[in-house]
From TrEMBL:
Keywords, comma-separated and alphabetical: ATP-binding, Isomerase, Lyase, Metal-binding, Multifunctional enzyme, NAD, NADP, Nucleotide-binding, Potassium
CDD domains registered for this protein in UniProt: YXKO-related
Catalyzed reaction equations: (6S)-NADHX + ADP = AMP + phosphate + NADH + H(+); (6R)-NADHX = (6S)-NADHX; (6R)-NADPHX = (6S)-NADPHX; (6S)-NADPHX + ADP = AMP + phosphate + NADPH + H(+)
Gene name, Swiss-Prot/TrEMBL: nnrD
Protein name: Bifunctional NAD(P)H-hydrate repair enzyme
Residues noted as binding K(+) in the record, renumbered to the chain: 59, 126, 162
Subunit details: Homotetramer.
Residues annotated for (6S)-NADPHX binding in this entry: 58-62, 130-136, 159, 262, 325, 376, 440
Cofactor(s) needed for function: Mg(2+); K(+)
Highest taxon of the lineage: Bacteria
Co-factor remark: Binds 1 potassium ion per subunit.
Length: 511
């Protein structure tokens, strides 16, 4: 699913009006009807007070039109116009007239008005600002937003939480609505997915208002939101006339004394992802434990007991995952360096592989093109230095990925894969996955997918989705709290089954 900028959304709006020969007011009415139906199907006429806070632009217009539909259905409403500007939009004014025609009189909140009382049992509709926000709200509007946030009422935001810019971090954090739920008009916004801006919303859902696919289809975007249909189309089914050689021989390189489990988990996940054969390449001390715990894997050991001193793989692997639990001691760095210099097949590099690259950035030029690097935020910071905000982080990370022709997987709540100037935002995963070893599992999955013939970008997008889905399956059985990395591995199979079982809920997602 494409993520459009505010400018592109305005273009889509215009294109739709022209090509469907409708008025902008009819488009607003579509939005209002969708908003109404969403609320009505849940409230079923409940006797609750709905307080609508409407700005004076088209976001406010949506709110005013919604107020009319709610009133007509018999709901108890209070409409407040947040009168932050004299420049009112045409469709806002039209809908305000329609409201007055029905003898509904909103109160106007100005900079000297007292703030309306809000009970925690009320429902707030937040239609103050939409994607048209282009500067910080004035202080009094900020105070109103704070007042709403402190009310403990359920806050339903129209399109985007008011005060949150569509593609920027807000400068005053407490002048942004904290939305319980966002009903976003047709298209998700980039800010929903980034740690600094995603915190302003709990859940979101898309409302389809029939924007023209003639515009949405061909339009180029910088970011995609990866959902089930995209991932399904990447899946490579297993062939009837195949053998284990068809699905590749993966090697997982890493481990050190006390950190052999990381390799074991990655090797296990690699097998579960479908790699035909898997070899673990580890220091001697891990030999027995891996052979015992993972009989399907083969093991090659370094001469040194406790860490790797040389990496010589005596065959041509289909895929190599390297760096987990490896350490960054002098001899390990040397082994990694000489391995990089003699390898030209794309690698999956994680953990200490990334830490060594951060320590010796001159080694980046030896990283084979199309390798996948999977930093968590701390590893990323070591690689690219400090960032001003999430948008700056994305730009810096994109530049690094483009400079070296690598696939950069920024792990996090919504893991973002960057390649060739574009970003792919993952939709699966949960807080239960914030647990030791879940990154090692991802390394194993990605390596196993490359071994089976997925190209690096597909492996990253598909693998990150599958990993998160395996985490979701695990959490659904065991709770978020009890998710363990080995549990995620054992549910990779169920995640594969889920890929073709679950019908997608239209646009719905937990932010
Ligand atoms: N195609 C779509 O996506 C549609 C969008 N619609 C709604 O239209 C909204 C966008 O409407 P608008 O472009 O009118 O913008 P907004 O309603 O977000 O903002 C209103 C106006 O306020 C001004 N403004 C911005 N920041 C301000 C500030 N800090 N203080 C005072 N004034 C400020 C701007 O001039 C802006 O145009 C969307 O978010 C959505 O809710 C719907 O009407 C249906 C169609
Ligand atoms: N709150 C969260 N929501 C979704 N996914 C998460 C969350 N926290 C962590 N993850 C995922 O779990 C993995 C953690 O990786 P990492 O930090 O490298 O773990 P480790 O080093 O313990 O193996 C990443 O894939 C990340 O995206
Ligand atoms: K809003």
């Amino acid at each position: 699913m494409k993520i459009f900028t505010a400018q592109q959304i305005y273009q889509a709006d215009k294109f739709t009006i022209e090509h469907q020969q409708i008025s902008s007011d009819q488009l607003m009415e579509r939005a209002a009807i969708q908003l109404f139906e969403w609320m009505h199907s849940r409230l079923q006429g409940a006797e609750v007070i709905i307080q609508l806070f409407c700005g004076i632009g088209n976001n406010g217009g949506d709110g005013i039109a919604l107020a009319r539909l709610l009133k007509e259905a018999g709901y108890t409403i209070q409409v407040h116009v947040v009168n932050y500007s004299e420049t009112r939009s045409k469709d806002f004014l039209l809908n305000l007239e329609r409201l007055k025609d029905r003898k509904i009189w909103p109160d106007f909140i100005n900079d000297d008005s007292s703030l309306p009382e809000i009970s925690p049992n009320d429902i707030i509709v937040d239609a103050i600002f939409g994607i048209g926000l282009n500067r910080e709200p004035s202080d009094w509007v900020g105070k109103l937003i704070q007042h709403i946030n402190q009310s403990q009422a359920f806050v339903l935001s129209v399109d985007i939480p008011s005060g949150l810019p569509a593609s920027q971090v807000p400068s005053t954090t407490d002048h942004v609505i904290r939305a319980s739920y966002v009903l976003s008009i047709q298209l998700p916004k980039l800010v929903f997915f980034l740690p600094e801006t995603g915190v302003y919303l709990n859940q979101w859902e898309l409302l389809d208002i029939g924007l023209n696919t003639g515009f949405l289809g061909p339009e180029q975007v910088a970011f995609h939101f990866v959902t089930l249909p995209e991932v399904q189309s990447m899946y490579r089914p297993r062939l009837k006339f195949s053998h284990k050689g068809t699905y590749g021989h993966s090697v997982i390189v890493g481990g050190s004394y006390g950190k052999i489990g990381a390799v074991q988990m990655a090797a296990d996940a690699c097998l579960r992802a479908g790699s035909g054969l898997v070899t673990a390449y580890i220091p001697e001390c891990g030999y027995e434990s891996i052979q015992t715990a993972l009989p399907e894997a083969m093991v090659l050991t370094d001469e040194e007991d406790n860490f790797l001193t040389s990496i010589d793989i005596p065959f041509d692997p289909s895929a190599i995952g390297i760096g987990i639990g490896m350490g960054t001691g002098e001899k390990v760095v040397k082994a990694f360096e000489s391995f990089l210099k003699k390898t030209d097949q794309p690698l999956v590099i994680d953990a200490d592989g990334l830490n060594i690259l951060s320590k010796k950035p001159e080694l980046f030029k030896y990283v084979p093109k199309a390798s996948i690097l999977t930093p968590h935020p701390k590893e990323l910071q070591r690689m690219i230095g400090d960032w001003k905000d999430d948008f700056d982080k994305l730009e810096k990370a994109k530049a690094l990925a483009t400079k070296y022709g690598i696939v950069l997987v920024l792990k996090g709540v919504h893991t973002i894969t960057l390649y060739n100037g574009l970003g792919y935002i993952n939709s699966t995963g949960n807080p239960g996955m914030a647990t030791a070893g879940s990154g090692d599992v991802l390394t194993g999955i990605l390596t196993g997918l490359i071994a089976q013939g997925y190209d690096s970008l597909q492996a990253a997008i598909f693998g990150v989705y599958l990993h998160g889905l395996a985490g979701d399956v695990t959490a659904s059985i065991e709770s978020y709290d009890a998710v363990k990395a080995t549990g995620i591995i054992s549910n990779i199979g169920k995640a594969y089954l889920e890929l073709f079982k679950r019908p997608e809920v239209e646009g719905g997602n937990t932010a």
